[in-house]
Amino acid sequence: MLDQADFLNAVASAECALEPLELLRRCNALEAALGRDRSRERVKGPRTLDLDILLFGTEIIDLPALTVPHPGMTERAFVLRPLLELEPDLADPRTGRVFADFLASVETQGIYPAGLAALY
Question: Catalytic one among 26, 37, 38, 52?
Answer without folding.
Answer: 52
